[in-house]
Amino acid sequence: MGKASSAKKVARAARAGGRVSSGQPRSVLFPSVLTLVILLGVALVVYARDDRRNDDLGGVPQLGDHIHQAFAVNACGQFLQDIPEFESPIGIHTHGDGVIHLHPFSQLGVGANATLDRYIEDARDDGGLEIELSNTKLEYLGETYEEDDTECEGIDDPVLRVAYWEDVQDEASDPEVVTGDFGDLRLTDDGAGITIFYGDEDGDIPKPPNAEQLSELGAADGGQVPDEEGNTTTTAPGDPSATTSTSAVTGEPSEPTTTVPAETTTTAAP
Predict the structure, then answer these.
(1) CA neighbours within 13 Å on the CB side: how many for 74?
(2) Structural domain count of the chain
(3) Which one, 48, 123, 143, 197, has least CB within 10 Å?
(4) Distance of alpha carbon 111 from alpha carbon 107, whole angstroms
(5) Mean pLDDT of the 232-244 span
């Protein structure tokens, strides 16, 4: 009798346990908390990235700024031809004078957007010039210089580097030399200098040839200053009354306008 009673108790406990485990709903608390943590983490990352980007776009240069930097390319010990003149609706351009002229017309040219990559991209897209720069290869006006492929006489294993002088006219200044991520180089310093260099990895990188004339070349630039709405006006060459405007929103130039001088009357002195 005792054995039967014990067996029945075991059977009832087993059935009860089965009913509880099969009928009780599974907890959703942990998956819900995990999902919430993931969503919050993603939101914080996106916010931090956008906040940092906004801060970067608030840096130099801004609409209305005028920045000039000497620029040159040196390959196998020789300076190459200056980048030919081209215009850009963004405002980062050159007059073929060995100088990068930064006069941002839109948000595409301000703060963190003003980079060496932006200048090269505008030269290629707006100027139609054959220019491309990567960590190991430079395509420049029909010539290609690539590590492990392009040789330089008297130089073993030439490499691609970029030197940046914050004040290129300071004879005592030393450049910052980078060996990769060249396109990310920020163009923030007025009076700076840049030399893209393909040659001896331990050799000194020379300053751009126009470094000494940078102040004069920058001063000779007419410049384009945005109005209160961010539009810029430039006097057309040869016609002081003809002007063109560029929208700060679209970056596109508008139709030229002509200003007719007001009629004046001269009265002879008595």
Answers:
(1) 19
(2) 1
(3) 48
(4) 8
(5) 40
Please determine, for residue 147, whether its predicted confidence score (pLDDT) is greater than 50.
Answer: yes
Q: Please determine, for residue 98, whether its predicted confidence score (pLDDT) is greater than 90.
A: yes
**Does residue 108 have a pLDDT over 50?**
yes
- 89 contact partners, CB below 8 Å, separation of at least 6: 105, 106, 126, 246, 250, 251, 252, 253
Task: Compute CA 181 distance to the chain's CA centroid, rounded to the nearest angstrom.
Answer: 11
Contact 160, 147 (CB under 8 A): yes
Tokens of 179: 């060996």
- What is the mean pLDDT of the segment spanning 173-197? 94
The two tokens of residue 153 are 């006489």
| Rounded Cα gap, residues 186 and 109, in angstroms | 11
Residue 244 has pLDDT above 60, yes or no: no
Note whether residue 204 is domain-resident. yes
Please, are residues 145 and 138 in contact by the beta-carbon 8 Å criterion?
yes
Which range marks the domain in which residue 137 is found?
A: 67-220
Residue 194 lies in a domain: yes
Predicted pLDDT of residue 45 = 60
β 193-199/67-75 pair status: parallel
Instruction: Determine, yes or no, domain membership for 264.
Output: no
Residues forming a β-bridge with 136: none
Q: Does residue 267 belong to any structural domain of this protein? A: no
